[in-house]
Amino acid sequence: MVSRVRVWLNRTYAENVFFMDQLRRNPSDRAVEIHATHGDPDSPVLAAADTAELEPEGLSPAAYVEYALDQCTRRGIDVFVPRLHQAAVVAHRAEFAAAGTALLAPPPEAVAVFHDKVIAYEAVQAIGVPVPPWWRVRSADELLTAVEALEAGGHKACFKPASGAGGVGFRVITRSPFSLAQLEGFPSPYVPLDLVLEAVHRAAEPVDWLVMPRLEQPEVSVDCLTGPDNRIRLAVGRTKNGRRRGFTLDERWLEPARRIAEGFGLHYLSNIQFRMYGDRPVLMDVNTRPAGGLHQLSLCGVNAPWAAVQLALGEDPGEVVPPFLGQDYTVVSGPRPLRPVSAPQLRPEAAQPLLPAVPAQVGAATGAEPQEQEQAQALPL
């Protein structure tokens, strides 16, 4: 009899409820139990898990590793998918292995390269992957120099933190003065240059930003599955052009993604993003974790989360080829169950496990969580 697999996701995006769904609906028909931890008691991943706990706040990376090792030992975790403190966790892979837990994450060297976007751009340039022009800025004067250089070339300038995930901190520079136009409609990523310069001047500490041209659509996120032998098992591009989403196997996007995933040892699941600079694709970002939209590959007949878990367990799924490419689709928010009540006694101070198995038939939340990636389902157009 094949034993069940116990998988832990720590403080992950709301959208990964679909990652969990796919693990349970795996084509091997293997029993999967999911443990989830989070800092937010109303995260839908806690309600979707078989067992769940609130994470203690304020732990240093080293203390979090100790907490994680204890979770793996107490909960009998077979595969741990770390998002929070990934770099610290993967540096202790041998200790997790001794506890019987496989880490579904790249080795520490690969995580370190892509933690800092400047280091990442320099590294991928060295292996021939094109990147956009960029400046690292720490002061108002450096920011102004970079913006003027980009504008002289006919580009809009944008900036984002040199380290960080997703679109957090991304802004586009405009020369238009602040006016009521910025206060109408929905919030915009555009910020007036004079206000940004003033804020940087007043800041108590230097900023650490990457300034580059605003890149054009389409945006293509290539989901990769790479084995510990540095060989790609799966590479599929998800395209985004406005609201319209789709899939691609075009080598313009897949070839540089493979080169990065295999060249830097991005083991297991990674997500490599490209956009257009003029008439050619350039690298935008590299995520050393599963993308929030990874579940959308199910529209191509692919269960990437389960293939990754198989790899982590030493059960090589072989090359994973989509049997077809799904039709174009869009992404919409939808309700997901939450645990019944947010009670003060369920905060991290509680001494006992906070959330045992949670029934699926509980109250539902509507819409996406603003502090996390959108909790979204893919619908055909």
Folded structure, characterized:
By secondary structure, this protein is of the alpha/beta class. The protein is 27% helix and 26% strand. The chain is built from eleven helices and 19 strands. The strands form five sheets. The chain has a five-stranded parallel beta sheet. A five-stranded mixed beta sheet has the order 6-10-7-8-9. A five-stranded antiparallel beta sheet has the order 13-12-11-14-15. α8 packs antiparallel against α9. It is globular and about 65 Å long.
Summarize the structure.
The chain has 11 helices and 19 strands.
Provide key terms for this protein.
about 375 residues; alpha/beta; 5-stranded parallel beta sheet; 5-stranded mixed beta sheet; 11 helices; about 25% helix; about 25% strand
